[in-house]
Design goal:
- It is built from 16 helices and 15 strands.
- By secondary structure, the protein is an alpha/beta fold.
- It has two domains: about 220 residues, Rossmann fold; about 180 residues, Glycogen Phosphorylase B (Rossmann fold, 3-Layer(aba) Sandwich).
- Strands 3-2-1-6-7-8-9 form a seven-stranded parallel sheet, with helices on both faces. Strands 12-11-10-13-14-15 form a six-stranded parallel sheet, with helices on both faces.
- It is globular and about 65 Å long.
- The chain starts with 6 loop residues before the first helix and ends with a helix.
- The relative contact order is 0.12.
Length: about 425
């Protein structure tokens, strides 16, 4: 089913595709902040701009009231291990009425769990294609379970594989994740389609805003991380690497943008090292302000080994920020090693050494910055990624239509 889409075909698809009604089921949505939510919002905006119709089915959140068109909120309860995350109760009598009136052409789910399974149920009932985006290496999040983690890891992988094989199409953010899914036994079609970004949103021009905001001297170098401060992001490794860097370049600062369950323990570790003034914890910040942080930094650092894509790397590159990252899964495809960033082994010395290489070489760093912008614009445009997703939808709808024609009796076909 894989098709290389050139510019003429993209334009034709954008202009000639009939409106597609897409029901999106997700176990997280606004106001929760995550890569999954960002992906849904990005594709929704682009698909609607191309004339298609999206209906979101998602959990409700405490104290969140917003004017939302075509967003269905399920009654939900806070997750016991993360109070910011809501668990939807997947029952509501209004659903059947909604689907009877608003008849979807495609159901696209973003989780193999609660609402993903509900979406799969309705796809079967309505006889429409089921698409699943594999956003997360779920087995790498078993540290949130209090016991039997090895068994849980194997069971989680089994759940993900079996759910994928119930779908008509699985979307993987990178080729590395596509290969991983095929290796664990996914047999349905898998397409590699990244979540794109709106390049223009990361063109903030005031390079000194960040230094003014935190009173950082002009000669100091700034390392930046953006993401959830959770165990899966490997922030401990990042901190230990930074401690090594700071011994070589004492004026270096590390800014951690985001909040999460590990924040207090990370602050304690920084305090023990006597570097609380050098490591800045911003907490959660509004999404529209993130571009200001990218614009003012010298280098983006990322140590997670569980990413299916690493969307923040794309954002950093769009802002012209070179990257040093651990080479693992989706991240390995987000950084063009030696061109717009450097990939490292999961090794403190290697990671710190490559950070120092770029911090000590302004010319190399500036050249990487130019390539970062260029590569982000060419490969990660949200419009281009949305058109690729639409091509996948259209293929499924054509196959479903053909299958229905073949299975119908000839006399019924003509009636």
């Amino acid at each position: 089913m894989s098709v290389t889409i050139g510019t003429p075909l993209k334009k034709a698809l954008e202009q000639e595709m009939k409106q597609i009604k897409i029901a999106v089921f997700s176990d997280s949505y606004c106001p929760y902040t995550s890569g999954v939510v960002h992906s849904i919002e990005t594709f929704k905006a682009e698909l609607e701009a191309l004339g298609h119709d999206i209906y979101i089915f998602a959990p409700s959140y405490p104290n969140w009231k917003a004017s939302e068109e075509k967003v269905f909120r399920f009654f939900s309860v806070p997750a016991p291990t993360n109070r910011d995350f809501s668990l939807a109760i997947p029952f509501d009598r209004r659903l059947k009425k909604i689907f009877r009136i608003w008849q979807p052409d495609i159901i696209h789910v973003h989780s193999p769990f609660i609402l993903g399974r509900l979406g799969a149920k309705y796809a079967r009932a309505l006889k429409v294609p089921l698409v699943f985006t594999f956003h997360t290496l779920y087995e790498e999040y078993v540290h949130y379970f209090p016991f039997a983690r090895m068994i849980t890891k194997k069971f989680t992988r089994l759940i993900a594989r079996n759910f994928c094989n119930r779908c008509d199409l699985v979307i993987a953010p990178t080729e590395a994740i596509k290969k991983y899914l095929q290796e664990i036994g996914v047999r349905v079609p898998v397409e590699s389609i990244p979540t794109g970004i709106k390049i223009e949103e990361f063109s903030f021009s005031d390079r000194n805003w960040l230094r003014r905001r935190y009173q950082i001297p002009a000669q100091d170098k700034i390392l930046l991380f953006v993401g959830r401060l959770g165990q899966e992001k490997n922030i401990d490794f990042l901190l230990e690497s930074y401690f090594k860097v700071n011994k070589e370049l004492p004026g270096t600062r590390l800014i951690l943008v985001g909040g999460g369950p590990e924040e207090q323990s990370l602050k304690k570790r920084v305090t023990q090292e006597g570097l609380l003034e050098n490591v800045i914890f911003t907490g959660k910040i509004p999404k529209e302000e993130v571009a200001k942080y990218y614009a003012g930094a010298d280098l983006f650092v990322f140590a997670s080994v569980t990413e299916t894509q690493g969307l923040v790397i794309a954002e950093a590159k769009a802002a012209g920020l070179p990257v040093v990252a651990v080479k693992a899964f989706g991240v390995s495809e987000m950084v063009v090693d030696g061109k717009d960033g450097l990939l490292t082994r999961l090794n403190l010395e290697d990671f710190a050494r490559k950070i120092l290489l770029l911090l000590n070489n302004d010319g190399l760093r500036e050249n990487f910055a130019l390539w970062a912008r260029k590569n982000a614009k060419e490969k990660l445009s949200s419009r281009n990624c949305a058109v690729r997703l639409l091509e996948g939808y259209q293929t499924l709808l054509k196959l479903r239509s053909l299958d229905m024609q073949i299975t119908l009796p000839p006399d019924r076909e003509l009636s």
